Amino acid sequence: QLMESGGGLVKPGGSLRLSCVASGFSLNGYSMNWVRQAPGQGLEWVSSISTGSSYIYYADSVRGRFTVSRDNAVNSLYLQMNSLRAEDTAVYFCARDARGSGPFDQWGQGTLVSVS
Amino acid sequence: QSVLTQPPSTSGTPGQRVSISCSGSTSNIGANNVCWYQQLPGMAPKLLIYGNDQRPSGVPDRFSGSKSGTSVSLAISGLRSEDEADYYCASWDDSLSGWVFGGGTKVTVL
Fold this sequence. Notes:
B: 45% strand
């Protein structure tokens, strides 16, 4: 199971840190991802991080503003979001990558980030 | 504008077969496996198909996937009311070095 937290209302230009805690499995065996969904819109991949944090990828829309990290010791994934914009308003899901090359086989319920 | 192109909606009556297309390019679908996700209203996405045509355990065999070149399709046979949801295709894109999703297709059971 994956559980996100840290969402909320923030002003444009502000910062927020999302967390995702895994239970029932060890996070250090899996690459992890953040995927977001703006209100009434489709899914948009945000970032991926490999098991040992050696490989990190970002969508162009967030590169330079968001930072993904993980702490395998506490089974947690993080997303530090800076310089937030109105268009970052979305539900943010964390998702487990089953094999390091997809698919995303487990998803959290999401946490809502509102920038206004 | 999504990198992968899906029709915004489709519909069918119970028992019918519906198909959803997803079109990409040589840098994503043409080069990598594709997954399909089902998102019921108000819920998180759920993995439906992986590796173009493989079903995770627990997914009914009414759902099937296929791939040809730079396009994939998801078919739902014996349509049921509980299949009413949004469906997304996804693939790794070698040029973008990131995952890309289709815009989603809303399936309505009439």
